[in-house]
Design goal:
Number of helices: 18
Distance between the termini: 48 Å
Strand order of the largest sheet: 1-2
Strand content: under 5%
Radius of gyration: 21 Å
Order of helices and strands: HHEEHHHHHHHHHHHHHHHH
Helix content: 55-70%
Length: 417
């Protein structure tokens, strides 16, 4: 079923008119792509519920109940679910409204809320409606992949985007809520701390971040205990260190984790002793160095480029990245596309096709299992197009004069409001 809907969608995607078409629903114009977004999200989660393939949701749900019962949330509970939880104690609060519902209903609502929050974040970006719809269209299949896996990644991606939006709107208090929440649930969210450099109220930003860190650490204590939550954060750190080691070991078996730049290098070279730091340190320096170009901050495309860089980086430089995590990275790739497709269209479109072939479609049933298992996953090739586009973005923010280019005039700077 996933292959069928993916095939039909891809045919229509490249006929761009579908993306911008609207239909009337109760006298309100709604883009077809938005209706498609929720329809496919619902079909994806319903399919998993009906075939009882919602193990991830069982893990998520039990995080709440284990916190309430003060049971170690990182241990294996084979009677309740397969695998183990790797999210922080705050996740118990995020999943709580769904955990108290019947499993089938909670799972469906959980997935639809994930899809809705990501869509909302995209629609709140200060770009044209047309460009918002292009982002939605490019991200749609990866969103479906995440929903088929009943994952949390669409919401994490949305929180990063919302943190950026609130910094842009000079609402640092709310921006730091999403940064702290992302950090205390899945670590990835801390990438949005980079938007601090674009804040016009840096003291407020720092104080707000400290405030939300304290509040969000304390809140789960209200239905558990202070000692248990503090202990759980220590256990979480140990769990993540152990998981990183497991992910690297899994490279020799072409596991489902470490679909990252480091994993790609380890799997292609068969060098399991290749340290993450060999990639992470240069990548960090490459991301940080262009931030010294302070004069470029006034240009929206420069700042949007950094939003795209953060969204891609937290995935392709994580040894925990798996196929369903790439909804976050593809959201960043979509931003890269809308900033570049009007210039260098030949190369931009060629790279987008590569993204569809190796990143977006590689997790669907359109690909034979042999190709997925022995080539794409075996060498973590899903990360390759994302890394190429990440490099393009880094070169741009390092060398391009965003203020003096014609393209910078397409989206007027809003930094100096």
């Amino acid at each position: 079923m996933q292959a069928f809907y993916t095939f039909v969608y891809c045919r229509k995607f490249f006929k761009m008119k579908l993306i911008f078409k609207e239909v009337s629903v109760f006298n309100k114009k709604i883009p077809v792509i938005v209706i498609t977004w929720f329809t496919l999200a619902f079909i994806a989660v319903l399919a998993e519920v009906l075939r009882h393939s919602i193990n991830n949701y069982y893990i998520f749900k039990q995080v709440f109940w284990h916190v309430v019962d003060q049971k170690n949330i990182f241990l294996l509970y084979p009677v309740e679910y397969k695998d183990a939880n790797h999210y922080g104690p705050l996740f118990s609060l995020v999943i709580a409204p769904f955990a108290v519902l019947p499993t089938w209903l909670g799972c469906i609502l959980w997935c639809l809320v994930n899809a809705a929050v990501l869509l909302l974040a995209i629609r709140k970006l200060n770009i044209s409606k047309q460009k918002q719809l292009i982002i939605i269209a490019i991200t749609l299949i990866e969103m479906m992949t995440a929903i088929h896996n009943v994952q949390f990644n669409p919401m994490i991606g949305a929180w990063i985007v919302l943190a950026y939006i609130f910094v842009e709107d000079e609402k640092d208090f709310w921006a730091t809520l999403f940064i702290a929440a992302g950090f205390l649930t899945k670590i990835y969210g801390i990438g949005a701390i980079l938007f601090f450099v674009f804040s016009k109220h840096k003291i407020r930003f720092v104080l707000s971040f400290i405030f939300w860190m304290i509040v969000l650490i304390v809140l789960p204590m209200l239905y558990s205990s202070p000692q248990f939550i503090i202990t759980s954060y220590g256990q979480w750190f140990e769990n993540l260190v152990h998981k990183n080691e497991e992910n690297i070991i899994g490279d020799q078996f072409a596991g489902h984790q470490d679909i990252s730049v480091m994993g790609m290098i380890r799997r292609i070279t068969q060098n399991l002793s290749f340290y993450n730091s060999y990639v992470l340190i240069p990548a960090t320096l490459l991301i940080a160095a262009p931030l010294l170009r302070f004069k470029q901050y006034v240009n929206k495309n420069f700042r949007l480029s950094y939003l795209a860089i953060v969204l891609i980086s937290v995935v392709i430089f994580s040894s925990s990245a798996e196929s369903s995590t790439y909804v976050i990275a593809v959201c960043g790739i979509s931003l890269w596309y809308i900033m570049n497709y009007q210039n260098n269209s030949k190369w931009v479109n060629a790279l987008l096709i590569l993204v569809f072939l190796l990143t977006i479609l590689s997790a669907t049933d359109l690909y034979p299992a042999y190709i997925k298992d022995h080539f794409i996953r075996a060498y973590s090739l899903k990360a390759l197009p994302c890394f190429i586009i990440w490099t393009w973005l880094i070169v741009n923010v390092s060398l391009k004069d965003f203020i003096g280019t014609a393209s910078s005039k397409i989206i007027k700077p809003s930094y100096n409001k």
